[in-house]
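Sharing in case it's useful to others searching the archive later.

Someone asked me privately for the predicted structure of E3 ubiquitin-protein ligase NEDD4, so I'm posting the question and my answer publicly. Question first, with the sequence:
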Amino acid sequence: MDGTFLIHVVSAYGVASMDTGSKSDPYVKVLLGDCELGKTAVVKNSLSPVWNYKIKVHLKGPESCVHEEALVFEAFDKDRFTRDDFLGIVKIKFDKIISGEINKVHMLGSRPLPHKDKVAGSLTLEFSYVPGADAGAPAGYIDAHAYHWENGKFRPGSG
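And my answer, the predicted C-alpha cells:
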C-alpha cells in the first residue's frame, strides 16, 4: 500500500454532558497506533460540536498492514484543572476506507474494562483514499506528514 488518506472530522451529535450546566467542551484526537496525527479545536459548551477539521496522511507499507491498522478517533471533554474526560472512541480499519465500505456516521464506543465511561452520541467522519505517491489534497487539509510500516506498526517518516 502506498497512498494518501484524506480525513475529515466533520462534527459530533449528542455527546455526553460532562460539565456543570449540562454541556461539554469536546475535541477529538486522530491517532494512528501510538502516533497522534492531529487534534480538533475545542468547542466550548456544546453537545453537538462542528469542527470541519481536515488532515491528510501519506502511508507506505505492505498490503497486509491495511488489515492490521486502524485510524482511531478519541473524543474528550476539555477540563481546565483536571484530566480531560473521555467521551468515546471510534476505530476504523484502513481496508474499509480503501474499499469505500465506510459509513459517514459512527457511534462513539467505550474503552475496554476496567474503565466505566459515560459515552453517548456519534461522530460524523468523511474519508478519501488516493493510491500512489504522496498526492496533493484539496484546499483546507492540514498535512499530517508521511508514515511508513516498520516492525509491525506505522512510524513517522517516509521510510
